[in-house]
Specification:
By secondary structure, the protein is of the alpha+beta class. The chain has 10 helices and 20 strands. The strands form 3 sheets. Strands 13-14-15-16-17-18-19-20 form an 8-stranded antiparallel barrel. Strands 1-2-3-4-5-6-7 form a 7-stranded mixed beta sheet. Helix 5 runs antiparallel to helix 6 (226-248) and helix 6 (226-248) runs antiparallel to helix 8 (260-269). The radius of gyration is 25 Å and the shape is globular. Belongs to the metallo-beta-lactamase superfamily. Class-B beta-lactamase family.
């Protein structure tokens, strides 16, 4: 190879290396928070790419109020982004639920004076992803709360849907509704902790708070409107109806997940593309989750009929199960283990609504027809029994 050719060869290598390094740098460029201004005093901040959920921001004479706080380790970045809009004090953060991608920035925001607002169903949250990080200043509310701030009215509604501690937020004067992860433009369906009942409660509430001009802000990515909420509702109903009808015919979750109808619905929920994270196992689990949320075979019991079941039941190891009523629904709670709405299949048998496996509680009664013991079964196998120690 001549000196000239060698020189050209090495120059080519350097150019190729420079291009690749440049592309690599572009690929590794950290994600940035973007802004969507709704009106003179209200913005939506978009995270994504690991930064976390959409954030609502009200700026006015009283300071700054946020709806959600993005992901863990994003708090400082969020504050920096906010400071490009306003240097007013951040007074409040409303968390639409407790998952880390929505409340992760709480800690940094509390350090600079913010107060976090969320429902008081906290006692019944289980698992490692249920903490409200950094909550040293907080306001908890029961069922509903109204906050007047910046000449705006914020109506907060506690719903049990995506989690047990969800909040739907209406920004009334600006005609904006935040749905958290109960409705989405990039994923679905929301089967919820109470099955179709979860979905129905949320959608009916959101539609009642909306008109044709309402800006609907899902938990992530693109904004929506009332029409999209209606379409989303229709698709979720189709999802439930098809799966439950197929299940009644004896089809397995694997068979149902492989049908053209369910595949088409998944594509619609995810913007026309099957997401990489939705593996076959997760897809089948989502179908199973829906099947176990079936209320068609459940019997309806009034509050007075449910009340005798309530109380504390103690296991041999000293741990306890609490059976309680919330909003006329019977629930079971075992600390750090589970919270579940119970669907009555008979006077004795209650299924866990919307769980992925066949979780069930069976009650035993004394001669006065009063529940005295419960047994928890998983796929038919006894996991534990507990004896009642007091009434609810």
């Amino acid at each position: 190879m001549t000196q000239k050719l060698k020189l050209l060869f090495h120059i080519g290598l350097l150019i190729s290396l420079a291009i690749n390094l440049n592309l690599f740098a572009k690929e590794k460029k950290p994600p940035e928070i973007t802004f969507n201004q709704i009106n003179e005093h209200f913005w939506v901040l978009h995270g994504g790419n690991g930064l976390g959920a959409n954030v609502g921001m009200s700026v006015g004479k009283d300071g700054i109020l946020l709806i959600d706080a993005m992901n863990i380790k994003t708090g400082k970045k969020l504050i920096k982004a906010i400071r490009t809009i306003s240097d007013k004090p951040i007074k409040y953060v409303i968390n639409t639920h407790q998952h880390r991608d929505h409340r992760g920035g709480n800690e940094e925001l509390v350090k600079i004076g913010a107060t976090v607002i969320y429902p008081n169903f906290l006692k019944y949250l289980s698992g490692s992803n249920t903490r409200y990080e950094g909550v040293k200043r907080e306001i908890q509310f029961r069922d509903q709360m109204t906050l007047k701030f910046n000449n705006e009215i914020f109506n907060l509604y506690h719903v049990k849907s995506h989690t047990w501690n969800d909040v739907i937020v209406q920004v009334k004067n600006s005609n904006i509704v935040f749905t958290g992860d109960n409705h989405a433009t990039n994923w679905g369906p929301n089967i919820g902790v109470r099955g179709m009942r979860s979905h129905r409660d949320v959608i009916d509430l959101v539609l009642s708070l909306s008109d044709e001009k309402t800006v609907v802000v899902p938990g992530h990515i693109a904004l929506a409107d009332k029409n999209h909420v209606i379409q989303y509702d229709q698709k979720v109903q189709q999802w439930f109806e098809y799966i439950l009808t197929s299940s009644a015919k004896g089809h397995t979750p694997e068979q149902i997940a492989n049908t053209a109808k369910i595949k088409a619905l998944i594509l619609w929920f995810h913007g026309g593309k099957h997401p990489d994270w939705l593996t076959k196992e997760r897809f089948v689990a989502r179908v199973s989750h829906t099947m176990f949320a079936d209320e068609k075979s459940a019997i309806s019991l009034s509050r007075s009929q449910l009340t005798p079941y309530t109380g504390i039941y103690r296991l041999k190891d000293g741990s306890q199960v609490e059976i309680f009523i919330h909003q006329d629904e019977l629930h079971a709670f075992k600390d750090k283990t589970f919270t579940a709405m119970l669907l009555a299949r008979s006077k004795k048998h209650f299924d866990f609504a919307g769980w992925n496996e066949q979780e069930r509680i069976d009650f035993e009664f004394d001669s006065n027809d009063k529940p005295t013991q419960l047994t928890f079964r998983l796929n038919g196998k006894v996991e534990f029994s507990a004896t009642r120690i007091n009434n609810g």
